[in-house]
Specification:
The protein is α/β, with parallel strands linked by helices and about 450 residues long. It has helices at about 10-15, 15-25, 60-65, 85-95, 130-140, 155-160, 200-215, 220-230, 240-245, 305-315, 360-375, 395-400, 430-445; strands at about 45-50, 70, 80-85, 100-105, 120, 125, 145-155, 165-170, 190-195, 230-235, 335-340, 345-350, 380, 405-410. It folds into two domains: about 5-105; about 120-445, Aminopeptidase. Helix content is about 30%, strand content about 15%. Strands 7-8-10-9-11-14-12-13 form an eight-stranded mixed beta sheet, with helices on both faces. Helix 11 links the parallel strand 12 (about 345-350) and strand 13. Helix 7 (about 200-215) crosses helix 13 (about 430-445). The two termini are about 30 Å apart. InterPro entries: Peptidase_M14, TAT_signal. Its EC number is 3.4.17.18. One of its GO terms (biological process) is proteolysis.
């Protein structure tokens, strides 16, 4: 999931209506839809492409491609509309009069002789089972610092077809009353959640590294020790474990599964529901058709993963915000929340369902700016420049319903071997060095996120 900077929005939005009539002839009847049950092609043929039209703006073209089921990535506009598609889909677009330029491979090379270590794939990324083993190992080794909890179930587990529990770790110097699934604890909370979109590999790995960083530095690093003495640091390393199982089913060429594993009549990566469009806050039935990558589900919070995560977050965070969208949270709010996605090098703050400023905009932006001082990512909110709103997203849900500042970091650049959904595993050290201080900044803001109340 990626978005654009605010400065491009108005000009691009104004063009949408004007280009619709132009695009329909170009993308007319008979165009095969990626991700659909009848049109799905093998994931091994997917690559990144940039699409341009001789007569339409990038904004209108992106909107129409998204509506027609293409996997529009909202990357840099400089070369056109970025999509993830098969070679056959690209050729069909060319036949409709569009220019389609190959921009790079989906996968980075992994030696044919590569043998993944237990619980890993694609050069070192951890499987869902690998994360679960790590969670248990950390909790067992550090009973004074870590509590491991199950907060919900994946879709497949609710169907008695395998699947997983959704796991969360509470990391703090444990005292009486800490790490309960309730608002009664005295410590402010920071939650980091990863791999809600299963194919965004770097995000789960950053969560894994964050866990180790905290427990291995308590008592030796003054900043970590101070934070763990005063704050509950919750981590949901894998929010979509069924999806991660699909992704990691090929250890050298991961499958591009974004959604969960909910059977919906679609084949390939069209299967499932986009969990980051499924929350009960501003859920929007028009976000995508059944087989599209942004399909929001049959109803708000229809998915067990969403239900478990929302119930957990509602349990640990106090509600300090009136229900009206533009009524501010109070200055006695505590807690912060971060969900990791990739890619695009962005720090995103509420709201994502509208370009109207959130009522706590000044304080929300101040925290995002503090994060950008370490990772040097752009600070954005709203539609991201291509009419790409995100109603039903988790970061908006936690702010809109609880008043807790909710953020998204889009990890990784838009080009180079470290870009895309499947960057080389060697890129992780660079991602970690950039984003570890951003995590610390957001966690440290949990005690008093709204000092001005604006």
């Amino acid at each position: 999931m990626t978005r654009f900077a605010y400065s491009r929005r108005s000009r691009l939005r104004r063009s949408l209506a004007a280009v619709t009539a132009v695009l329909l002839p170009l993308l007319g009847a008979g165009l095969a839809l990626p991700g659909g049950a009848s049109a799905a092609l093998p994931d091994t043929e997917q690559a990144y492409y940039d699409v341009t039209s001789p007569s339409a703006t990038t904004a209108g073209l992106a909107a129409d491609l998204t509506r027609r089921g293409y996997d529009v990535l909202e990357g840099s506009l400089n070369s056109g509309v970025p999509i993830l598609a098969t070679a056959a889909d690209a050729q069909r677009l060319r036949h409709r009069g569009l220019s389609v330029r190959y921009a790079g491979p989906l996968h980075q090379p992994v030696a044919a002789s590569f043998r993944a270590a237990a619980g890993t794939y694609y050069g070192g990324y951890h499987t869902a089972a690998g994360h679960e083993a790590h969670n248990q190992q950390v909790a067992t080794a550090h009973p004074d610092l870590v509590v491991l909890r199950s907060i919900g179930q994946s879709w497949l587990k609710t169907q008695n077809r395998g699947g997983h529990d959704i796991q969360a770790l509470c990391i703090t110097k444990i005292k009486a009353g800490d790490c309960a699934i309730s608002t009664n604890g005295t410590k402010p909370k920071f939650t980091l959640m990863a791999q809600m979109h299963a194919r965004e590999l770097a995000t789960g790995e950053l969560a894994y590294m964050w866990i180790d960083y905290l427990v291995n530095n308590y008592g030796t690093n003054a900043d970590v020790t101070r934070l763990m003495d005063t704050t509950e640091l919750w981590v949901i390393p894998i929010a979509n474990p069924d999806g991660v199982d699909i992704v990691s089913s090929n250890s050298t060429r991961p499958v591009s599964q974004r959604k969960n594993a909910h059977d919906n009549g679609c084949s390939g990566t069209g299967r499932g529901v986009d969990l980051n469009r499924n929350s009960s806050y501003h859920w929007d039935v028009n976000q995508g058709t059944t087989c599209s990558q942004t399909y929001p589900g049959t109803s708000a919070a229809s998915e067990p993963e969403t239900q478990g995560i929302q119930n957990f977050l509602a349990g640990i965070y106090r509600d300090t915000k009136p229900s009206a969208d533009f009524s501010p949270a109070t200055t006695d709010t505590t807690g912060t929340f971060l969900t990791l996605h990739s890619y695009g090098e962005l720090n995103i703050y509420p709201y994502g369902w509208t370009n109207s400023l959130a009522p706590n905009n000044d304080d929300l932006r101040t925290i995002a700016t503090a994060m950008s001082q370490s990772n040097h990512y752009e600070v954005v909110h709203g539609d991201g420049g291509l009419n790409y709103f995100a109603p039903g997203a988790t970061d908006d849900w936690i702010y809109g319903t609880r008043g807790v500042p909710g953020y998204t970091i889009e990890v990784g650049p838009s080009s180079s071997g470290c870009s895309g959904f499947f960057p080389r595993y060697s890129c992780m050290s660079g991602f970690w060095n950039l984003n570890r201080p951003a995590f610390m900044a957001l966690a440290s803001a949990a005690a008093r996120p709204y000092p001005t109340g604006h």
